[in-house]
Amino acid sequence: MKNTTAVLIACVSVAACKDKDRSQSASAAQPSATTVEKPAAPAFKDIKELFPKGKVAPPAELASFIGAAFDEAKSNAKLPGYKNVEYFLGNDAFDRTHVHTFKLDTNVKAAQLEPILTAAWGAPKTDHTDTVWSDPAGGWEARLNSIGTAVIYNPIQPLAKIFGDDKLWGFETDRPIIGMTTEEFKTAYASKFVPATSKGIYEMKVLGTEVGRVSLDAREKNGKITGVHLYLDVTLDPSAADTIMAALAKRFGKSTVEPISEDTVFPVKPKLRVEHTKGLQQYSVLIGES
Q1: Residue 198: predicted pLDDT
Q2: Which residues face 282 on adjacent strands?
Q3: CA 257 from chain center: how many Å?
Q4: Measured between alpha carbons, how far is 62 from 81 in angstroms, rounded to an integer?
Q5: Cα separation values, 54 from 16, 57, 122, 158, 260, Å
Q6: Per-residue b/e over 55-65, b at no fewer than 16 CB within 10 Å?
Q7: How buried is residue 258: exposed, middle or buried, by Cβ count under 10 Å (0-12/13-18/19+)?
Q8: Distance between CA atoms of 290 and 287, rounded to whole angstroms?
Q9: Alpha carbon 103 to its chain's center
Q10: How far apart are CA 140 and CA 142, in angstroms?
């Protein structure tokens, strides 16, 4: 009887050992909860892809916003696919209902971002604290502030377009502005002027050029538009002053220089005078009456 009991105990012990071995083997075959691999971090696109070579323009990802209705609630967001890149959509004082400008905040300092842009678009020009790349044929400029991380895109036009043809300036539509009644002017340029900031002066919308910013205003007197003042900045290319004067001479003929003011005067109607203050990279083209 004792021998039978011993055999039974031994069998139980052996079975238990085999069960333990099987359990340990099964346990070893199952991966531990602590060794489960974490999902791989999402791969971000190279920031260089935002700046294709040879084309100064907002990234393709933002192309659908150009001219679209402006919605302030959706005017800025993260740019999908890129790490810490954010975009901002902008309107302007003349048309607050549509998108006209873009700001792309890369969160990359200007010192590191400028070489990337230069590799894509060539050597830039400088406008005070901004580094600027321009593509007048494509209709865009890109500005990078020296202490910022954002690239700002503004629509521009070729300088030559400003001067128009033999009949109209580039900023006019189907008839000269000078001579219009105030009401005709407001109707014809409904989305291209802002209410008079000073008595009888209407600031008008005009795009900058590859050589600098441009501003324009129309002057009203006794219910009619009697003058237009065009201000051309040439900070990005001071040599463009020669281009301006050559374009005016081609259209309006010979001019004279007044001895005291040194203004350039073209003997045409409406009157045409060009003022330039030495030391400033700006030319004022005054058409008609002030």
Answers
A1: 76
A2: 233
A3: 39
A4: 13
A5: 77, 9, 8, 17, 46
A6: ebbbbebbeeb
A7: exposed
A8: 8
A9: 6
A10: 7
Coil/strand/helix, residue 169: coil
Pair of tokens at residue 21: 């071995």
Tokens encoding 237: 């290319």
Pairing of strands 256-257, 101-105: unpaired
What pTM was computed for the model?
0.81
HSE toward the beta carbon, residue 287, CA cutoff 13 A? 21
How far is it, in rounded angstroms, from Cα 126 to Cα 39? 46
Which pair of structure tokens corresponds to residue 42? 């999402």
3-state SS, residue 42 = coil
Q: Which is more confident, 271 or 38?
A: 271
User: Can you read off the two tokens belonging to residue 188?
Assistant: 């014809």
Distance CA 149, CA 274 (A): 38
Residue partners of 129: CB distance under 8 A and separation at least 6: 145, 146, 147
pLDDT in tens, 245-283: 999 999 999 999 999 999 999 999 999 999 998 778 999
CA distance 191 to 145: 30
β-pairing, 272-276 with 264-266?
antiparallel
- Give the pLDDT band (50/70/90) at residue 1: very low
Q: Which amino acid does the sequence have at 241?
A: A
CA 70, 76, 79, 82 torsion-angle sign = positive
Strand, helix or coil for residue 288: strand
Whole-angstrom distance, CA of residue 209 vs CA of residue 238: 13
